[in-house]
Each structure stands twice: as structure tokens, then as C-alpha cells.
Amino acid sequence: MISDWLTELAAAGSAALVAAASTDAWQTTRDRFVRILSRGDPDRVETASRRLDVLRHAAQTPDGDRGLAEARRTWQIRLQDLLEEHPEAADELRSTIASLPPPRPATTSYRQHGAARDHGRVFMNQHGYQIIRETRPGTPDA
């Protein structure tokens, strides 16, 4: 059974890896994680590289938040398995996490500007649906 601190380290490593997948620091991060995951075995280098490339692709997909949440869970399990088999990898993983830039806070801002002139109308909607029914005086819907 894996100890709590190794579980926490795997979670931190997973979060750092997934956060770095969409940054300019990806190539360095990828190289370090390939080294950690392969443990010097040439056959495991290809598998680690392929899995990390899939993560990078998911991070670059628009609206991939759900996929990245799943990737965090998947990578946490992979890192837990690695740390259980190779506890000596903990120091290298910890060092790699410390070397990564801190994740950017998830902030979303929206800005809208609507202007109507000369008896015009503006209908705006940020999210969801907007239904506009035009009726004229004297029609049954009025």
C-alpha cells in the first residue's frame, strides 16, 4: 500500500504536469517526465513519450477542461504506481515539480459592448439561449 505522502506527491506531480502541458515550459517538462517515467529503460521511453504527447494534445484542445480533469486523475494513478514500484523516484519528481513555473490561476473574463443608433436595438447574451419574439400591436400574441 502506498503511503499518504507518496499519494500527495503523485497528486502534486499530476497537477504540475497537466498545468505545464499548455505552457511554453512543456518541452523541458516533457523531457524530465520521460526520464522519471522511463527509469532508464529504453522501451519505457517510447510509452512515456507517447502518453505525454497525448496529454499535450488534450491541453491544446479548445474547451478541453473535462479532458484535463480526467488527465489529472489518470496521471496521478500513473505516478502513484511509479512511486510504489520506484520510491527512489520521489526526490526526482519533487525536484521536477519545484522547477516548474507555478500554474496560472484560472480566470475567465468576458467583455461585451453593444451600441444601438438610429432607433436600432441590441440583443446581447453571454451564455445560454436568447429568444426574442417580435409582435406587432393588434396581433394575437400582443
How would you explain this protein's 3D organization?
Helices cover 56% and strands 0% of the residues. By secondary structure, it is mainly alpha-helical. Helix 1 (4-20) packs across helix 4 (65-85) and helix 1 packs across helix 5 (89-99). The longest helix has 21 residues, at 65-85. The relative contact order is 0.15.
Short description:
This protein has 142 residues and is an all-alpha fold. The protein has five helices and no strands.
Biggest pleated sheet:
none
Helix proportion of residues, in percent?
A: 55-70%
Number of helices: 5
- Spell out the helices and strands N to C: HHHHH
* Residue runs with pLDDT of under 50 for 5 or more positions: none
What is the strand content?
under 5%
Quote the distance from N terminus to C terminus: 70 Å
